[in-house]
Fold this protein.
Amino acid sequence: MLAYISRRLIFAVFLVFAVSSSSLILARLAGGDYVTESLGIEAHPETVEQARARYGLDKSIGAQYRDWLGRVVRLDLGRSLLYDRPVSDLIPERAANTAILAFTALLFATLIGLPLGVVAGSRRRGPGGAGGPGGVIPGVIRATSLVLLSMPPLLTSLFLVFVAARTGWMPIAGMRSPGEPSTGLTLDLLQHLIVPAGALALPLAAMFERLQAQAMAEAIGAPFVLATLARGVPRSRVVWRDALKASLRPIAAVYGIVIGTLLSGSFVVEVITAWPGLGRLMLDALRARDVFLVAGCAGAGSIFLALGSLLSDAALALVDPRVAEP
Amino acid sequence: MVATAMGAACGPSRTSTNGNAATNTAPGTGVPRGGNLLVSVRNEPRSFNRLTARETTTDLVSNLTQAKLVRINKVTQEVEPSLAESWTRSEDGRRYALKLRSGVVFSDGQPFTSADVVFTFKAVYDEKTGSSLADSLQANGKRLRVMAIDPLTVEIAFADPFAAGVRLLDNLPILPRHKLEAALEAGKLGEAWNLSTPPSEIVGLGPFVLSAYIPGQRLVFDRNPRYFRKAPDGSALPYLDRLTVEIIPDQSAELLRLEAGQIDMTHSEILPEAYAPLKRAADAGRIKLVDLGVGLDANSLWFNLKPGAFAGDPRAAWLQRDELRQAISLAVDRQLMADTVYLGAAAPVFGPITPANKTWYWAGLPKTPHDTGAAKRKLAAIGLTDRNGDGALEDARNRPAQFTLLTRTGRPDLERGAAVIRDEMKKIGVVVNVVTLEAGALADRFVNTGKYEAVYYSPIATDTDPALNPDFWFSFGSAHLWNMLEKTPATDWERRIDELMAKQIASPDETERKKLFDEVQQVFVEHEPVVYFVAPRVYVAVSSRVTNLTPAISRPQTLWEPDTLAVNK
């Protein structure tokens, strides 16, 4: 197991390096640069050239990459051109906000999707569940999930923002209200989480529900479940204890990747709901051609993805010990 | 010396927009005092240092916390005293002596003197700081010379006569020498007042002080109790206790929050498609919608007129010809564009100066009619006719008449406008291939690489006075869109504009300046290097509790005078 984790960690380091490097190079190769964007079209050429020299943007891409690499090995991610602050200060600040949003969305999605998937998948027409899932409730759950799965986060964000605006039940955007404490877990923060976390959680819950329903439907038909039922164990206990554990494998397989994806920042949701997270930071950096911040955000995203993937494997091994066997 | 005596520190008089006097009003004015105004912006500030960052939020921070020697009243478009209470101009028009207000102190209590003015100019022109303001604080491409005569008098000398004079100083926030001199001496002023700076270090002469910055979320400004401007009745300004700037990147969310009463105003104007829902909210009394009239800026199309830009391209024979641009101007139905792109909330315009620019608009500007027949005749004159009866025009060698039009993605008005141009040109047989590019990539094409055929965009003039937009008008200018940074004028008409503008900038006689600039516009419109189509109407929306608002057509429409804004509680 230790060797396995070590191999994955080495791969993660390589992944982070490759993603950051390619992001920096691609951002640099894209048309325009930070200086043109920040000084405007009317800036005098001398001012533009001086600014490029100051930021090191007058060097060749190779030279810029070498300078960046030299700093990165010393764990110096450089200074953001856009915000004139160390990249290593900006990223944790925003990543923390994204983490709050991501874990809340994940919690919502798990608490909604998993039980609904169990309900939908465990209700079968025939004895012991033969014949496939049936009934009105599973049908409604399935239809709702399919609708939510087909709705991109952009649409769910806009819908929830609209509902919030029309009803006044929850804040429309932002992370905290003016005048409220800017740190700590507060009721104000929880209220502000409803819209963005909901926008992320709904399609995710739908995905969890579909995966769980399929897996549960298979588990319900498994011989060991039939045998347990035959011994007179109450159906609800069989479903929620035995079959559930056996059906968690698909969820465990994707869970870590979902965490990684959420932590990388959903910029659509963050922009529409004005959530100050990593996704929004990356989008602003890309627009401004802030190559160092782009590389830092991409690197952070890939770290989360790699960790998420590792977490996924660990969860899978926990749920199904056969995975860890050589 | 020509005396230009100015009045006291009072702002222009106005009546309150809300007749209901709240408690705690400023005596004699009916303007409520206190409260927190909530404003939204779309972008984070890049810095608190206006010398190094020029985007709208940094500019807003500067307007709220700093003050200038003079300011341009955005309603009247005239220069008014600010930190300088009066000034005189020498007979030769090259030197201005500015008398500074006495008794003015920074927000930390340190006195303001002429040394701060000299320091600020030094900081702007410092090479290591690399301020973008240095370019705009030049006259005829030359820097100003600034001298402190005494603690309350400053002399500003221009290398050549410059009629716009002190108007130039509206660009420059006066910085505290006592806080920033050490950074300047160390060559680190460019890094000073970045976003990591504690708010208490941001000291200024403006109506507010920065009290908190929560990255990605908001900036909070509290009233500066030492602010120098007074209300008409002599009481202290600003009226507000607090001004909170919320960072909301998405305009839909911004407008929803405005309708829901969660913010009081947006920093930018309202898009045409948002007008209808906001009108409903205004009719219900939740917000006030203000129509400021036709704007100062129009969307425009220009071609790459750099000599040799199309060398080797068979279309070089007609792509840079005046007749092509004149044909486009004739072929595109401007009213259709106003209706399609702006839902009717726009007016056709025919030159770079719109009627909103009351001082410099030329009433004699010819209005190009919508005439597809005349457009086809113009194109025929440069060899483009329908040679095979298929409805499309070809050149003498039967090559199709087509060109690529670049515009900016993410701007619905530009994308729709380009589509209208494409469709209108198709009617007369010219194929226009519209390509949308992201902002940085688009700017790269026409600023850096010069690899483009035509662009449809919306450049914004920095001031209504043409003397303060020399980079657009002069052929050597860095914003001379169609052919930037010419070493010598590429055409006779550009040479003529250069001559007229040089006289216009130097003439102390305002009537003479207007006459010269009318002629500039006439020459410009004859050759039409840039084709203008429509200028959108400008709408702003504020919550119903905002009062004492003086909205203006120039940006920032509602926040140009933040010290006199008030809210009913």
Summary: Chain B touches chain A through 61 residues (CB under 8 Å). Residues 1-23 of chain B have pLDDT under 50 and may be disordered. Chain B is about 25% helix and 20% strand.
